[in-house]
Amino acid sequence: MLINQFREGFPELATKSKHPAMMQLESIKQWCKKRKWLLAILAILLVAYYFCLPKKLFNTPTSYVLEDANGDLLNAGIASDGQWRFPFNEHVPEKFEKCIIAYEDKRFRYHWGLDPIAIVRALKQNIQGKKVMSGGSTITMQVIRLSRNQPRNIWQKIIEGVLATRLEFAASKKKILALYASNAPFGGNVIGLEAAAWRYYGRKADLLSWGEMAALAVLPNNPAMVHPGRNRQTLLAKRNRLLDKLCSQKTIDSLTCQLSKLEPLPDQPLALPQDAPHLMDLFHKQIRKGEPTRLRSTVIASLQRSASAIVERFHSSYKANGINNAAVLVLDVETGNTLAYVGNIYHPADSELESHVDIIQSRRSPGSTLKPVLYAAMLNDGLILPHTLIPDIPTQIAGYAPQNFDLGFDGAVPASRALARSLNIPAVRMLQQYRYERFYTLLKKLGITTLDKPADHYGLSLILGGAETTLWEMCGMYASMARTLVHIQQYNGKYDLDDIHPPNYRHDAEQPDEHELSNAGVLDAGSLWYAFEAMTEGMRPGEELLWQQFSSSQRIAWKTGTSFGFRDGWAIGVTPQYVVGVWVGNADGEGRPGLIGVSTAAPILFDVFRQLKTGSWFVPPYAQLRKVEVCAQSGYRASELCDDVDTLMVPAAGIRAGVCPFHQLVHLDRTGHYRVTEACESPQFMQHKSWFILPPSQEFYYRNKNTYLPLPPYKPECLPYVGLDKAPMELIYPRPNARIYIPIEIDGQPGQTIFTATHRNTSMKIFWHLDNKFMGATTEFHQMAFHPLPGRHIITLVDENGERIEQSFEILNKEKD
User: Fold this and answer.
1) pLDDT tens digits along 55-71
2) Domain that holds residue 791
3) What's the CATH code of the domain at 250?
4) Do residues 163 and 215 both lie within one domain?
5) Among 101, 323, 397, 784, which is most exposed with the fewest C-beta within 10 angstroms?
C-alpha cells in the first residue's frame, strides 16, 4: 500500500522502475485479451487432435486362429464377415518390412505420417496426367484409411493425414507396420499378411522366400485388380520391379534377385490347416467376449498330426464293423498340458459319421477304467494288501448281479491280478467293502465333475461304468495321480495339493508360483505306485503281446474299459511322462459286437505311445512304504499259521490290514490221510499241520484253476465224536434273499433257473428241497434245475451227515414287478 502511494506521488519514477521483461509480459497479456477467442479455438483443436485417434483402430471381426506350442498354425476359421482375417500380430517378418517400405513408402522411417516429397510428386503426376495417378499416401496414412473404410476423396485424404500424424505420436514405427501387415488387403477375401501367406503359399510368413514375399508386398497396392487369380502378368511385372529395387538398394544380391524372379506365382488359394478342429471348437466355445481370437495352445503339431493319422488308419479298419468314431488325448504329466487333442475323426463332408462331435468332452460310460482308483484307495486305507485274495464267485447284492466278461469265476483271485485281468465281480466286492459313497467322494476330489447325481443313484455299478464321465477328466485324473507319485520324490515325501488339477490346453495358463505341501495326499504315493505296477501286468493285444521280451519296449501302466452294450471302448495308459487316453465307438451311442476296449482302443493306445519318447519308470516311494510279513497264498498279513511267508514293502496303512483268515491248524492221523480228534486218536500219533482252507463257494471254483489241497475227511471211527463240520456246504446260487426273473422261452413256456451248491467233501450226497418238498439228490456236481412260480420260496439242502442250510429267494413276475 505504501509502495502504491509512493508511485502515485512520483509517476515518472514508477515508469522508470518497470523491468523490460515485465513490459513484454504485459504486452503478451494484452495481445491474448484481444485474441482470446482465437486461443480458445486453438485449445479446442489441440484437445480434439489429442483425442481424435480411436483407442482401437480396427473393430472388424477376426478369424479364430489356433497355434501349437511353437506358434505354428494348427487351425484357422473364416471370420464372421466371410474374410480370412487373422488377429493382430505385432511380429512383422523382416523380409516383408523391407519389401513394403521399398515399394510403398521408402521414407517411412523418417516422416511423421506425412511425406511432403511424396505429396508434391503425386500432385505433379496427377496434374500432368489430368487424372489421379498417385495418392502420395504413406504406410501410416494407409493404416488410417484401412481402419476407417471411407470413400477416397480429397476431404478424406486430409482427415487421413491428420490422423496419421496423430498415430505417429501414439505408436512406434514397428507397431504401425504391424497394423498394416495385419489389415492390408491381399486379394479376394484375404486380409493381412499371415492369412495371405497361408492362403497363397501354405506356410507361415516367416518362411517365405524373397520372391514370395515380394509378390505379396505388391498386392495391397491394388488388390481388386491384381492378385494371383487375376492379371498374373501385371503381378509378375510388379514383383520383378520390386525385386530389382531391392537389389539396387543392396537389400538382396543379384543372384538372389535372379533366382527369386524364377519363382512361380501362387495359383488358386490353398485350404488352411485343419489339424485340431475339435480343439478349435472347444476354444471357440470357451472364449469370452472381447478376448483375442488367437490362441497359442500347448499342443505339439507333429504329435497331433501323428495321432490324427493313427486314428484315421484304425477308422478305416473299424468302419467295416459299423464303428465310426474314435478319439485320442495325450497329456504331459508334469504340467497337465495337452500335447495332442484328436477329438474325433475329421470327415466334415459325411454328416452320417458325426465327426463334428468332440468325443473328448462328451459324457460316456467309462466301463472298467475306474478300477485302478479303487485298488489304490483300498491300499491307501489298509483294507487290502497288494495281493490280498478277493472272492470271485457268483454274486448278487441287493438285486445287482455283476458278471465277469468271460462269464467265469476264479473262486478267489489276488487283488493285483483281478485288476490286471479287469475282473468285475472282485471289483464290485471291493467297492462294497470300501463303500460306494466314499468312492464317489474320492472321484470328485480327483477331478471327476460329471457325477451330478447322488451316490445312491449309481450304487455299486459305479465301478463298472454306471456313471458317465469324459475322456478329458479321466486323463486328467490319471495325470494327477502320476504327478503326485513323481513329485513325492521332489518334495521329500510331501504332497503338493495343487498336483490334482484338470488338463490344460492354453499356452498362457498360469502356473502356481508356490506349492502348498502337505503330509497327506488324496491318495498315498505307495498305493499309487502299486496301482500303476498292477496296471502294467495286463495282457497287451496283438503285436504288443510279447513286449517284455524287447528291451526297446516301453513300460506302460494301462487299463481298458468296455461299457454295457458294447457302446464304448476305452484305453488309458500312464507313464511318468505321459498319459494317453483313447475312446472308440459311435458318437450316437450305437453299440457294436466286438466293440471291446482291449481289441479296439488298446491298439491305438500303443501306437500313440510309440510316437512318444521313452523315459524312466516310477521310482518306488520307499519312504511311504512299510515292511510287512505277508502270507504268500492269501496275500493277507501273515498269521502264525502261515507256513509260506514273504516280506513285502506295502503302503503305510498296510500294517493295519487284516490277518490271514484261511490258514487253520488241522489234526491228522499218522498217515496224513484223515482228520482226527483226541477222542479217537492218541495225541502221540497225531500230525499237526497248517492248512489253507477257503470257504466252500470259493473253493469250488478256485481248485479248478489253482493248486489246492482239499481238507481230508475225518477218520470213520472219529465221526461219532466230532460235531458238524464248520460250513462244509454252501449254496453258490442263488445268494440269500435273491430276486430272480425267469424269462419266457421261445415256445411260450416259463424257463428254468439252475441252482448250484458245493460241498467240501466231493463224494458227499446233497438232498434238495424246495418249500419243504423233496426235489432230488446230487453227487459230485451239485446243480439242479427248478421251475418255481412267482413269489417267495425257501430252498433247503441237507447232506448225508445231516448238515443243513436254508435260504429264501423270490421269483419275480414281470407283469407286476
Assistant:
1) 888 889 999 999 999 99
2) 729-812
3) 1.10.3810.10
4) yes
5) 397
